[in-house]
Every structure is written in C-alpha cells, then in structure tokens.
Amino acid sequence: MFLERSSYIEKIGRNSSIINFKVDLQFPKLSLKSMSNNLVRILCQFLSARYYLTFGFSFFFIYSALTTASWGQSIDPYYKTPTQPPTVPSSQGQTITDIEVRFVDRNNQSVAGKTKPHIIIREFDLKPGDIYDAELAQEGLIGVNNLIHIKQGTISLEPSITDNNVVMVVTVEERNTFFFTFGLTLPPPTALQGPARPVTVIPQSNRASGLGGGIRIGWRNLGGTSKAISLGVEATTKSFGFDFDYRDFVRHDRGYAFNFFSRQGREPEFENGDPEINLPNGDDIWIGRLGGGGEYFFPIARNFQGTVGASYQLVSARDGLYSSSLQPVDELGKPLTFSADGQDTLLTINLASALDRRNSNLNPTRGYRFLLGMDQSIPIGDANILHNRLSANFSQFLPLNLFGFTEGDRTLALNIQGGTVMGDLPPYEAFSLGGANSVRGFKTGELGTGRSFVQATVEYRFPIFKFNAFKEKYTVGGNLFVDYGSDLGSGDTVRGEPAEFRDKPGSAFGYGFGLRVPTQFGTLRLELGFNDKGDNVLHFNIGERF
After folding, report:
1. Alpha carbon of 28 to those of 361, 483, 525: distances in Å?
2. What is the CATH number of the domain that holds 298?
3. pLDDT, tens only, 446-475
4. 524: enclosing H helix or E strand
5. What is the pTM of this model?
C-alpha cells in the first residue's frame, strides 16, 4: 500500500486537481470467470454501505472544514471558478465622465481598499469621454471578478452634473491577502517546470510517489498591484521538494511568472517493475531536479490560454534523499543519465496552451477541453541533450442518461492523450504509463515507459445518493470505466531501456468501477481497477483524473 501525490494536468477549477493524492492497494489475482461476480458483489457492498460512507465522508469534511475555515481561502489561490456573466446597467447613450473604484466588506459596508484603483480600471476597455457600452462594461467586470485578489465586483451608474453624463462606479469586495492551501499544483497552462507544475499529459515521468502530500502558502496583491508570491512544499516517503513562485498580473488573464524549485524523488520509470532493478550498492534510484524558469502567459482567444517560457534544470541520479553520491548507472550497468558522471544539464523552451469550453471546471457534464504542449531542449553542458517533446490531451463530456440511483447529472466522459519525443531521450524525461491517472488496474509506472504513447478512457458517471454536511449537500456518485494505454513499442528506444529490463508489458487495458464525491477542494475518488493481466488495484484520489 502506498499513497502518492501526482501532479494533475487539470485545474481544480481549471482541472484537474489541486490536491491529488492516491492510495493503491494490490489484491490477489482474480480469474476472468470470477470477475463479474466480484464486480457485482463489491458494487452491492458499496451501495449497502451508504450510511458508513456518509459517516466517513462527514468525518473527512469535519477535518477539511476546520482546516480551511480558519484560513478562509479556496483551494486554488490563482484561479476562481467561473460563474454566470454579471449583470450591468443597460446602455442609454450616456457619456462617461469618470470611473470610480469603491471598496466594501462582506456586509457591503464601505472600507479602505488595498488594491490600487488603476489595477481595477485597466480591466475595462472604457475610459472617461467614451459612450457607455454595456457589453464592454460586462467584459471588464468579468475581468475584475477574475482577478486573484477580488472576491466580487459590481457596476453602477451615477448621474453627473451634466445631462446625459454618468460616473461609472465599480464596487469591489477584496479577498484575503494571505492564503494557505493543501496541495501545491498550480493550474494549467504553464511553461514552467518543477513539482508544482501541471503537465499536458499525466504519463510524463517527472513525478514522484510516496505516502504524504503538499501545502502552499503565499501572499497575493502585494502592494495593491496584483502581484503574488507563494511557496509550495511536498513531503512523502519517496520524495521531498519545494517550489517558489512569483507572479505579476498585467491583467487578470496575462502576466509574467518566475519559479525556483528543487525535488528529490523516486520516479515511476524506475519503479514497480518485475524484476526490481536498483543501484549497484543496492539502494533505490532517486532522481534530483534543481532549477527554475520564467514565462509569459496570455489569452489567445475566449477560453483559450497560452504561455511561453524557458526552464533550466540540473537533473541527477542519486542513492538517497539529497545524497551527495551521484549514480550514473543501475546495477545492470544501464545508464540513468546522459552524462557519464550522473548529472545532466537541461535547458528547454516551453510552450503550452489550454482551450477550455467545459460548462464547469469542478464537475463538468458537457463541453470539451484541449491541452497542447511542446518542449524544445537546447544542448548545453556535458549531456548536450537535444530533443523535442510534443504532447496533447483532449477531453469531451456528454450528457447521457443511461442509469442512476438518485437525481443528478449522468455523464459520458471521454479522454485521449498522446505524445512523442524526437531526439535524445534520457529515461527521466520519458512517458511512464499505469496508475490512477493513467491506466487504472496498474500501479504508477507499472505498465511501461516509452518514447511515445497513446492513452484513452471511456467513463460513465452517475449519481448514487446524497447527504448533508455542514449545511452543504454532497452527491456520492459512481463511475464505470475502461482505460487503454500503449507505449507504441517504443520502450526500447529510451536510453537505458528501463521498462524493457523491468519486464513492463508496454500495452494493456484496464477497467473497473468506483465512487466519486465532488467537493469544493476536489473530487474524492475511490476506484477499483482491473487489468487484462489478471491483477487489480484499489486507487484513492483527491482530484479529477482529466
């Protein structure tokens, strides 16, 4: 049994999961003849355990409510779940003589604001002397409401001393400056690297595992200028890392970001093989990453974000957490890095984009999302690594009323991911398959590690029952899923061939069922996956899969 934090490519709120932990439990092999009976029996046990589940979830919510209420923050400090377009006054041909910004508290009482007024005003494509336009006012107000430090904004028009002239008043309620969240993954897209960076496709190898989790603390709206700094820390039995992040928002949807990170961990390309292959001294293989980068993020079109940046990393193979001993090869003499000394220098130009047309970021039931990423390395140092990585991820959500046990959404969720690397490919930059966010029924990285991959999922989500906790109504849902993943026969093209010598299958199906509870801090997922090799794994996650 192990609990793992993996970076989820979605935003919780922009998906995929800001907190994303998982527990994988391996059960004895089940014969194909007995699988159907076991599926029915276990599902019935889940349904009959309704009150036990309600008690368990309520206990979990008690802990979560106590820890989050004291900070009064949402789980993602940099993203707010979209709501319906705000209402603004209609156009009557009035001329704007001035734009004023006023601040109120949660009781709508006037207070002194922390945000400088021009930060609010620059969200509008209106200025004094313009004819008031309701459409432009609404677009600007949406931008104000999406600022990381604004909780809610409204617009009103007040008559001026001159006929047919008005003062446009923007009234805003600010959020707390300090924030504290569980989990440290930031929302996509991003061109930066590190433990808090969401990836375009989950099977990338630069993930670590272990029992534990992460937190992020920080301050937003520094000096009232829409700047933010934060520090994320993760600690598990198999990894430790931190990520320092600085962001300067030019407007709500564009700006600059810089980060510095460090992480040491046991990564999936070298784990869960049969046989297990360690270092010549018998220790486990640890991959260390130390680096930083910068990016510019910007809107491409409505609901379509892009980012471009550069990252620098020192990547090393070692025999323990922050060990001083570099390990260039494993016990079979297979290389772990490109450099002969066990440490590579990796400089990359990174591009990423996210087109999000889902009706909800927390629990989508219709719409689609498309993620695209490209990383181009520039050869430097002894490793002299030159490669190009392309990856893509598409999700579609369709309403489909097949069955359910209570009122609620019934959704068919489809996902396909793929990627390839052209050029030099160290094992720590390959695609690793298997796990709760890849092919369920396998442990993380157990299916394979390749230069190229394709992964697909068909999943039906349905409601089972509802319960109340802390004046909130929660829906316990179920899901049935089929996953497929393949390294497309590319396992032997990765330097050191980690999957080939660990006898990983490379391609397989997974299928099963589970329970889901959408919450404000992520979707709780308990899923039992079977694979076509006769094995099964019970996965527990907080955070969406795609």
Report:
1. 37, 21, 22
2. 2.40.160.50
3. 999 999 999 999 999 999 999 998 888 899
4. strand 522-531
5. 0.84
* DSSP structure string for 99-131: EEEEEE-TTS-B---SS-HHHHHTT-S--TTSB
Q: Where does a domain end: 147, 174, 201?
A: 174
Are residues 495 and 356 part of one domain? yes
Q: What angle do CA 241, 247, 249 make, to 5 degrees?
A: 155
> Which tokens sit at 140?
């600007």
Query: Each residue of 330-363: pLDDT tens digit?
Result: 999 999 999 999 999 999 999 999 999 999 888 8
Q: What is the mean pLDDT of the chain?
A: 85
Claim to verify: residue 395 and residue 537 sit in the same structural domain? yes
Let me know if residue 285 belongs to a domain: yes
| pLDDT of 528 above 50 | yes
- Find where tokens 């922050």 sit: 322
Where a domain ends, among 159, 174, 189?
174
What residue type is assigned to position 338 of the chain? F
- What is the CATH classification number for the domain harbouring 144? 3.10.20.310
Residue 296 makes CB contacts below 8 A (sequence gap 6+) with 254, 255, 256, 307, 308, 309
Question: Is residue 444 within 8 Å of residue 438, measured between CB atoms?
Answer: yes
Angle at 230 between CA 227 and CA 235, to 5 degrees: 165
Q: Output the CA torsion 536→543→524→147 (10° steps).
A: -170
Identity (one letter) of the amino acid at 299?
P
Write down the pLDDT at residue 31: 45
